[in-house]
């Protein structure tokens, strides 16, 4: 069957057909849905387009989202560059055909957009696309199907000890309690006060607005579990888990000094594992590159799962020279 590969602006996409293609594909993951992309690309300086393989009947057979951010490249007039958004660990070619050739999708993206700041994908390339730089990264995932007892046996000795301490703290101190919620503001406040200052370049206000919008969309679809730990009525830690298909994503978390000392996040993660253990779920910790955080997730028995980051630069010699000067000074 003849298929045509097109670049389609977001406002011209058939969102129903797009989401149906993502949901039915072997590559299915939360990040690929149109409504999810709309939420994480909320700012006026962000947008996305779709690369769509359409058959003769007009059906979407394969789709690939391309997130774009308006940037001033080398101090020149701003332009749209490919850039991975927050809360979107990786993207893919989502196809109804398991044997789809993803190469034309990536070639079209690279040919259309001269500058790729970063594009993350689970696609492993037999041959590296021209003009690209590719780096392997990993997240950590935990298979929950074996049941809680078997999973707990694979916790590291240190994680088991911290789990016991947290259990004792909650058992012996009646001032601690757990609370499920749909309100993101306490989690945002915890993050602002305890974590934002450690991030290079700080965190823009629009990013918090985007997170609030995203949680509303997730809650509306029944996909979010937002859980807080309170001490004397004060929220000291929170965790957001998102379940779609057979994958649960540990999407966001924050804790105060009190919450950290009480090992509350260990308890929040363990509680989720207990609730879902024995079912065909995979828990994705969305591991960052920071070694201490990766070690924390690995201590639950999680294993590495690879993905790749792509970058490319087809700017003119003058633009590249200006870009080098900008980075230098």
Walk me through the structure.
The structure is a single chain. Helices cover 34% and strands 31% of the residues. With 329 residues, the protein is of the alpha+beta class. It folds into 2 domains: 3-131 and 314-328, Aminopeptidase (3-Layer(aba) Sandwich); 140-305, Gcn5-related N-acetyltransferase (GNAT) (Aminopeptidase), CATH 3.40.630. Strands 1, 2, 3, 4, 5, 6, 7, 8, 9, 10, 11, 12 and 13 form a 13-stranded mixed sheet that branches. α2 packs antiparallel against α7 and α5 packs across α9 (264-276). It is globular, with a radius of gyration of 21 Å. 36% of the residues are buried. The mean pLDDT is 91.
Please outline the major beta sheet.
13 strands, mixed
CATH class of the largest domain: Alpha Beta
Spans with pLDDT under 50 lasting ≥5 residues? none
Strand content: 25-35%
Number of strands: 13
Distance between the termini: 54 Å
Q: What is the CATH T-level topology of the largest domain?
A: Aminopeptidase
Question: Mind telling me the CATH superfamily name of the largest domain?
Answer: Gcn5-related N-acetyltransferase (GNAT)
Provide mean pLDDT, rounded. 91
CATH architecture of the largest domain: 3-Layer(aba) Sandwich
Q: What portion of residues is helical?
A: 25-40%
Number of domains: 2
Structural class: alpha+beta
Globally, the shape reads globular
Return the string of H and E elements: EHHEEEEHEEHHEHHEEEHHEHEH
How many distinct helices?
11
* Integer-rounded radius of gyration: 21 Å
